[in-house]
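Try it yourself: sequence plus pyridoxal-5'-phosphate, in.
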Amino acid sequence: MSSLAAALAQRQRDRLYRRRRIADSPPGPEVVLDGHKLLSFASNDYLGLANHPELVSAYAHGARRYGAGSGAAHLLGGHSRAHHALEEELAEFTGRPRALLFSTGFMANLGTVTALAGRGDAVFGDRLNHASLVDAARASGAVFKRFRHADMAHLATLLEQQPGRLKLVLTDGVFSMDGDIAPLEHLARLCRQHQAWLMVDDAHGMGVLGRHGGGSLQQAGLNHHQVPVLMGTLGKAFGVFGAFVAGEDTLIEYLIQQARSYVYTTALPPAVAEAARASLKRVREDHWRRERLAELVTRFRHGATQLGLPLPASHTPIQPLIIGSSEEALKVSEYLLSRGIWAPAIRPPTVPKGSARLRITITAAHRPEHIDRLLAALEESRP
Ligand SMILES: *Cc1c(COP(=O)(O)O)cnc(C)c1O
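Structure, out:
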C-alpha cells in the first residue's frame, strides 16, 4: 500500500489529484455541489433533457411495469419489450437496419472492438480518441496504431504500411475534450480505398448534430455502407443512461453472439429504456433545443473572442479554454468557483501534457444571462 500512497502523493504534488463533489440536485444550469449553489458549465446534458418531466414520468411508469431492475442478462431473459422497442426506434432514428443496446458507452466500445478485431488484425485510432476506444483497441490483441489528431495523411501511411486481415479505424465523431468534429467524409473515403472498416463513437454528436439530431454521421450524410459501425450513447444529450451500436443485421447478430460486455452483463433496467424512448421523442421533435443551443454557443464564442480568450474552432457545445499548466487551469477553475460558477479543470492524462483546460459545456437549458455571467467571471479571472 505504501507504493500506492507514494503515487497519490506525487499526483497531488503534480496538481493532478482529482476529487469528487457531492451533488444534491438534478443536472441543470443550476446545481448544488458540496452544498453550494453553482451555475454549472460541466454537464453533457446538452439538450437539457435529463430532468424533463416526460422522461422522469416514463422512468417511473417503466419501474412500475417492469420493476427496478432487469433481473438478468439480455440472453437469459433480461431483454424486455422496452429494450426491444428502444432498439427498433434507435435503428430507425439512425437510418440503420438494426441497433443493439449496451449498458454504457465504455462497454459498447470495449465489446464491439474486441469482438471485431483480434490477433492478426490491425486497429487504427485518432490520438485524441476517448479512453474507452483506446482501451478497447489494446484489449483486442490486434496491432494498434495511433494517428496524429485528424491527420489523414498520417492515417493513409499507417494503413499502407500495416498489414492486417481486418483493418478497423476508430474515431470519435465529436472529440470529447476539444469539441471539434472528425473529418468523417475523408475518413470514410480512405477506409474504402484501403478496405478498412470505420467505427465512429458519436457520444457527443448524437442528439446534437444533424437535422434531426441523428449525430455527426447524419450531418455528414454518411450511411452504414460508408461507416459500418456507429456507437451512440444515451447518457449525454439523451439525458438518461446506456449506449447502442447501430449497423447491418449481420454486425448486430455477430455482436449479440460475441461481444463479451454484452453477453456477460445484466441488461439495463427496462425503466431506463422507457426513459430513453421518451427522450428520443424529445430529441427528434424539439428542434428548438438544438437551435437554442447553437445560439448560446455563438453568444459565448462571440463574447470570448471580444475578450481575446483563445478558443479553438469548435462549433459544438464543448468549448475548451486551453490554459496549459495544470496549476493555472486549477487556479482559473477555483476562481470561477469563488464566483459561483462550476467549470472543471481537465488535466492530463485526460488531455495531453501542457494542454490543461477548462472544459466549458453549454446546454439548451442555459439562458443568455448565464453565458454573460460566465464571460464576466472569465474576464475578471485574468491576472
Ligand atoms: C462518455 C463517452 C463514452 C462513454 O460513454 P458512457 O455511456 O458514459 O460509458 C465513450 N466515448 C466517448 C467519446 C465519450 O465521451
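One thing you can check immediately is this: Residues 104-106, 109, 130, 132, 172, 176, 201, 203-204, 233, 235, 243 surround pyridoxal-5'-phosphate (CB under 6 Å).
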